Amino acid sequence: MLLLEHTPRFETKAAALLAKKLYGIRGKATPLPSERDQNFLLETESGEKFVLKIANALEDRALLDAQHAALNHIAQQISLCPRVVPGLSGETIATVESPTGLQNFVRMLTYLPGVPVAEVHPHSPELLCDLGRKIGQLDRALATFDHAAVHRNFHWDLVSGQNVIHEYGALIAEAGLRDLIYKFASDFEHNLAPSLSKLGTSVIHNDANDYNILVGGSDGHQRVTGLIDFGDMVYSFTVGDLAVAIAYAMLEKPDPLAAAAQIVEGYHAEYPITEAEIDALFGLVCLRLCMSVCLAAQQQPQRPDDDYLSISQRSIRNTLPKLMALDPRFAAEAFRDVCGLSSSYGTASGSERVVSKSFLQRATTTRSLPLAVPVDVTRTRTETLAERRRWIGKNVSLAYKVPVKIERGSMQYLYDEEGRQYLDAYNNVPHVGHCHPRVVKAGQDQMALLNTNTRYLHDLINRYAEKLCATLPNPLSVCFFVNSGSEANELALRLARAHTGKRDMIVLEHAYHGNTTTMIDISPYKHDGPGGAGAPSWVHTAPIPDLYRGLYRQDDAKAAERYSQHVVEIIGALRESGISLAGFIAESFPSVAGQIVFPEGYLAEVYAAVRAAGGVCIADEVQTGYGRIGTRFWAFETYGVVPDIVVLGKPIGNGHPIGAVIATHEIAASFDNGMEFFSTFGGNTVSCAIGLAVLDVVLEEDLQSHALQVGNHLLEGLRKLMDRYSIIGDVRGSGLFLGVELVRDRETLEPATEEADFIVNRMRELGILLGTDGSFHNVIKIRPPMPFSLNDADLLLRTMQRILEENFAHVP
Ligand code: PMP
Q: Which long-range contacts (CB under 8 A, 24 or more apart) does 754-760 make?
């Protein structure tokens, strides 16, 4: 390491004399900042500007030769970097004795106009993209350059990153930061280090920090005009230049990943990035910042008053934890996206530089940044909340005491406006994972090709319906597509009424089937809840067969029969009043009612009674279908029953609004009574492409078995927690559809509503998203996107245990 006491100390006058004597340049000298050398700006009378550089006495001559050779090489291709000015003697480098008696190498470069990017605020997307472009141009120019001196062991080389952390990490004073960096180093070693050999190598600049990048141009049209300081040049990973530029550009950005993506986009447009480089890039960015913290910890004692060191370290300390909370795979997907490269799912990563077709197309069209939120991203969470209060209905509720502002999603993770990652253990709509690349692509491709309605022939709707019916028992074979679960239940009700010619329905207590007027009518959870007007006369409510707190409980061997008897009694009472039934509707595992599992035999008895009374049986599988419960693809299958109508929604579009109704031939035929059924958007081409992709992913990735494995693991862990903490009264469910019911007293079952709310909010603070439900809102619902892994399950269990241990009593 170059010691600071060897920094040359020439007077400004002496520098001006050297410039005249060695280079024949007569001008006014002004000192420029430099960490270890001495630099002077020289301005001639004619206005020409140069930089006289007096190197640190410990500087290696061969490295200065390498720098000059590189600058000459670059100058032949691009005009981004300073040019080397020859001396009067013909040599470019001279040796002079400094006032301290040491030998120093002196050289002269042309001066580049512009201000350091560190002094430009904010960094517009165009500027960041241009930065990427310029780094790409530089790397392309350097690809044909080499010099023996830059094949060196150098502490700023990313290749040495892990060693630097191991050597100096212990000097980091703050324990939290040190642990974070050690954790990163260990993850890096396991996940990234083995594939670094796939990265291309070449000579790189290796120090595109924001004081070495110069910017010019007017407001709003700023461009990178120069890149200086080749003192850290090294033969290393080619993508290292990009990683370093990104590392510093991300600092203190409200949306660091968007900034990084803008740079990547520009770079890739100039010098296409390989798949392997994309996969490694984010890790290398973090590695560079970790190295900076470690090397600063090592240098700080020698430079206690160095403002630059402390400013940049403060920024790194502010930003690094946010970056490390990001999933590197998510970052890679983001980079892949702006490069127009296909997602990593199902693609092998190559090691050659590739230019994708879509990149070539994009290069000629307007640049877009899909990563950026398509609204003003500068809003803080508080501003967004205030605006929402102004513009959105008050009873459109928000989750959590401190609402989360979510800007991106990837599989089972969500990311807020600061890039903080949340483990999503609650949302069942993104069934195959938030923004699953295959689903996104299916939608994008179809949207670019055709989106029209069911009035025209198209094969997608037929294939989708056929594939959907193949998952259902035989009599369920006619499909109707709509846009939501509510609409699907509405249609199911119309089908039941058309088939039976009757109006009355039996529903379960606490049930929820949708938000439309008629769905509120058949949803006791709504019409019996706050603001509700009770059930209309044609709706008859049977008790919820809840074995934990319902009328008949676990200890009652006849619970199923007793519960189904209530339905039989309702039917009998109706008959006595001369009323026949249109049907019965229930979720196969009631969710809003608190993740209830029916007692064995209950649904079969109810279905038999309803059919005997001429009614049809509707299974609302909006929440429970598509393999979620693990043991079966559809939840009704666990009870050995076959409904007459099945209603689908939420997960089947993975977030795209699709609802579906599948009925028997007979029921569909009754519905075909002369009145056309048309839903403008239901079954549109894009929805069908998306729906089909979701179903393909569920089946091909065998998410049902995965849900069973992870669900069983969760159930086991939750039951252990129940053994330990008395507040957990019941743990129930199947697969990735679980409920944890909290009670203040295991005898009285007094609901622990506030406690459930506290736990869910505390889990959110600790980065895990959950929700509550049940008639007392005391049931914690675990219903994650299906890719939720065993590791995620362990994290959830550990976090929940921590909260329980800190706040609640053990079982006596
Ligand atoms: N049925 C059930 C069981 C539901 O949970 C929901 C939504 N929570 C619906 C129907 C209504 O679906 P949507 O909100 O898509 O209209």
A: 755/727, 755/808, 756/780, 758/807, 759/800, 759/803, 759/804, 760/400
